[in-house]
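User: Hi! I have a protein structure encoded as tokens and I'd like to know what sequence might fold into it. I'm fairly new to this, so please keep things simple.
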């Protein structure tokens, strides 16, 4: 800034200015969460047959969101009965966890099946995810789950899909 504009800024002033500019460009994260029901509604209308769920707390705050697009649901019929499941941290003002499941199609390409955004990666959120997944995809013969050794995934799959093998 000193060489380009002749303004001398401290690191903290530059950092705050950058954060403010990003907020002007992207909006505040609170605004994004308030738009989520509209976004999910548009997804359902744009892709008929998709399964979209939003769960809120008793005081109307975001808790979970689940999305399985109709193209993935139709593609699942032609895929191997192997679910690859994982969760990853979201780096935003509100944190959270993104849960995903995918599979491999007949030619070896990865097909994303469903994703969810949840508050924590725990037994409750994984069980909720698999309940939504089962409603969208049901169960295939010889279906199995592959994941890391997360105990919550193991508990949720054994509860929702009794008898289904789980591999790490």
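Assistant: Happy to help. Inverse folding works backwards from shape to sequence: for each of the 168 positions I chose a residue that suits the local structure. Here it is:
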């Amino acid at each position: 800034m000193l060489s380009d504009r002749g303004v001398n800024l401290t690191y903290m002033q530059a950092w705050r200015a950058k954060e403010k500019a990003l907020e002007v460009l992207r909006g505040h994260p609170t605004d994004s969460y308030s738009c989520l029901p509209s976004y999910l509604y548009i997804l359902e209308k744009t892709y008929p047959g998709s399964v979209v769920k939003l769960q809120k707390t008793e005081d109307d705050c975001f808790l979970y969101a689940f999305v399985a697009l109709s193209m993935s649901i139709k593609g699942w019929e032609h895929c191997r009965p192997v679910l690859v499941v994982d969760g990853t941290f979201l780096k935003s003002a509100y944190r959270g966890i993104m849960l995903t499941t995918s599979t491999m199609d007949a030619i070896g390409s990865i097909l994303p099946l469903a994703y969810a955004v949840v508050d924590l990666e725990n037994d409750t959120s994984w069980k909720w995810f698999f309940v939504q997944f089962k409603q969208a995809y049901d169960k295939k013969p010889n279906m199995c789950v592959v994941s890391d050794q997360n105990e919550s995934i193991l508990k949720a799959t054994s509860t929702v899909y009794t008898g289904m093998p789980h591999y790490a």
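A useful reference point when you look it over: The radius of gyration is 20 Å. Feel free to ask if any position seems puzzling.
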